Structure formats: C-alpha cells, structure tokens
C-alpha cells in the first residue's frame, strides 16, 4: 500500500479522479482487480492513480466499478 505521506489523492480534484477512472478498461470485463492510470493534473503535474475494482451486490443485482485508492505524483 502507498504510504500516507506519498498519497496525494485527497489533494486531487474530483474531475481529475474521474478522468483517471475513465482511462481504465471497462470494469465489467477487466480481468485484474487493480489497475493504474497516469494523467496530467494542473498544479501537480503527472499523477499515477492506483484503482481497485469493486463489486457491489444488492439483491440480485451486481454493480462493478473502479474506485481510486491512491495517487502519487511522478516525474
């Protein structure tokens, strides 16, 4: 896991987290439970997002989606 002093996820705006999640493969067909994406964030530079695939069950329905768990400034 990313050490808290390196994790800048709380400093990144929601619109950039959403952009990082959109860069990932479709969560319904992905074969891995963890993925990374890199995007450019204003005032921070390049940021690598570590994302986890989450399955949410409600009765007979299952929703699968990506959730960002960490972000680290690179470069």
Task: Kindly describe this structure.
The chain is mostly beta strands and 75 residues long. It has one domain. 12% of the residues lie in helices and 47% in strands. A three-stranded antiparallel beta sheet has the order 1-2-3. Strand 2 and strand 3 form a beta hairpin. The chain starts with 13 loop residues before the first helix and ends with a strand. The mean pLDDT is 93.
Topology:
Blueprint: H1 14-22, E1 34-41, E2 45-58, E3 61-73
Antiparallel strand pairs: 1-2, 2-3
If helices are DSSP runs of H or I spanning 4 or more residues, what is the number of helices? 1
Order of helices and strands: HEEE
In terms of structural class, how would the helical and strand content be classed? mainly beta
Question: How would the global form be characterised?
Answer: elongated
What's the alpha carbon Rg, rounded to whole Å? 13 Å
Distance between the termini: 20 Å
Lateral arrangement of strands in the main beta sheet: 1-2-3
The portion of residues assigned to helices is: 10-25%
Biggest β-sheet, characterized?
3 strands, antiparallel
- Total number of beta strands: 3
Low-confidence stretches: none
Proportion of beta-strand residues: over 45%
- How much is the average pLDDT? 93
User: How many structural domains are formed by the residues?
Assistant: 1
